[in-house]
Design a protein that fits this description.
169 residues; alpha+beta; two-stranded parallel sheet; rod-shaped
Amino acid sequence: MRFFVAFLALVFFLPATSVFADTIKVASQIDKVTVFPSGAAVVRAAKVKLGKGEHVIVIGDLPGQAVASSIRVEGRQVTGNLSIGSVDSRRLMVTKAEAGGDVERKRLEDAIEAAKDNRAAIVAEIETAQTKKQLISNLANLPNHPAPSQGSVGVAPDWSGLLSLISSE
């Protein structure tokens, strides 16, 4: 019974402002960035038109790395009275089903990886072609080399093996 009386007292004494306040979800965008040696200050802006009464404004697109103690809120271009009661922050875990952008991001990352692999294969083909070109150029210059002198022992080139290697490649 004590619990019930305490509960009723709590319900009747709660301010109606938080219970019946309109909740408005707003998207923000980066307005200004100041870079410091130890970090950066990022100012985000969001425009909201509010009617009379109490409202809760939810800005859900803040980065997960935002430091809760550094979040500041102010109102500008206010035509009436504005009173900011409190600023709360919390981290929400987003499930994969809710994060629709993950599918698109994964697709783009896969496309980038495939393009890098394709580029690496093309670079390898170019290097192979340049090596073959250099080999053929060196073979073309072989008749220009002088024959070994009479007193030295020379090794005769294996022309048939070399030509079969070139034809197989």
